[in-house]
Amino acid sequence: MTEKTTSDLVLEQLKQGLALPGDLYTSPTLFAEEVSAIFGRQWLYAGHVSEIPHAGDYLTVTSGDESCIVARDADGEIHGLLNVCRHRGARLVDCGTGSTRRFVCPYHQWAYSHDGSLAGAPRMPDSFDKSRWPLKKVHTSVWQGLVFVNFSSEEEVESLPELMADAAELMNPFGVEDARIAHTEVYEVDANWKLVWENAQECYHCNANHPEFIRTFDVREMAQPTAGEAPLWYSEDRRSQSARFPLKPGAVSLTMSGRPASAKPMGEFADGREPYTAAAHLKPGFAFVFSPDYGITFVDTPVSPDRTHVKVQWLVHRDAVEGVDYAVDNLIRVWDQTNRQDWELCRSVQEGVKSHGFEPGPLSLDETSVAGFYYAYARMMSAAGL
């Protein structure tokens, strides 16, 4: 008898309209499989182009045992480079951002140009051919000023613009490529990455837990994704999803007051375009929400079966000046409070699913996107034979 795969189990739960069994959030074996099969093969968000504006600027992306350098060269091109020296395998740079003339291995001083080519290797024989030993490339794609990497070892990977095609029309008016990072928060969440993602897919919990968020967010409209302003768009496998984010009448931005947090409108909204707020997800770990005056990005990185690293960045127009056009405290207030409330809820669920008495309950009418996540998760695991 053929052993049931994780993807088979998830699809069976979906057919019954049920949540997932507890061991899918606690198993170290499954966690290791997910990091390799999902996060090792899908597009992962690296950062915004404004974080690496000049030649030699770089940022890093880490997923499981993999680390990537995203660097800009003298011609303005962006390269994804495996953060592994071709000599003995040492990491070239630590996690974070920086700027350097060359990437020099701290171990034996092999030096690499920003495109990954080997520029210097001390005390190698005359027969040594530097051109044979560049840094290995990591698939890189820039979409709307957002940089993504894919650690897949396959020579070709799917097109990111094609995967995000439905979101493009919705997001084009925001001019995301002309934004810059105004603030960054890093949260350590004591919960499995899937619980963190599920939480972000529904607002069934919002009325009881997010007083700041629902001052301007219209929960009732969210419960009717095919009605009102616009439908919910998603790719066939549900990895990509986008929609307008409904705000209450009179609100033009997702802030405490519903008024703009920044005086510098973004993109076409500076020219008087009718305001709206929009959101998009790219599974397994990226989401963003933009209002006419600011945007926010979320990146979920699995750390262990019961711990997730969440990096959140707030973006404003590149010409917006802190203290003149916006105040950071006001800019981040709604989302920072909502995030902290969500992380506590996720921690509570993580504790609960460890109980031997936990039995997955039925999904509500407000959790259709949670079901969509289950489907996308099953498809990604199935692609790896899991």
Automatic annotation (TrEMBL):
Residues 44-149 form the Rieske domain. The keyword DNA damage does not apply. Signal peptide: none annotated. It comes from the Bacteria. InterPro entries: Rieske_2Fe-2S, Rieske_2Fe-2S_sf, Ring_hydroxy_dOase_asu_C_dom, Rng_hydr_dOase-A. Pfam families: Rieske (PF00355), Ring_hydroxyl_A (PF00848). Keywords: 2Fe-2S, Dioxygenase, Iron, Iron-sulfur, Metal-binding, Oxidoreductase. Its cofactor is Fe cation. GO terms for molecular function: 2 iron, 2 sulfur cluster binding; dioxygenase activity; iron ion binding; monooxygenase activity; oxidoreductase activity, acting on paired donors, with incorporation or reduction of molecular oxygen. The keyword Lyase does not apply. Gene3D superfamilies: Naphthalene 1,2-dioxygenase Alpha Subunit, Chain A, domain 1, Rieske [2Fe-2S] iron-sulphur domain. This is Aromatic ring-hydroxylating dioxygenase subunit alpha. The lineage of its organism: Bacteria, Bacillati, Actinomycetota, Actinomycetes, Propionibacteriales.
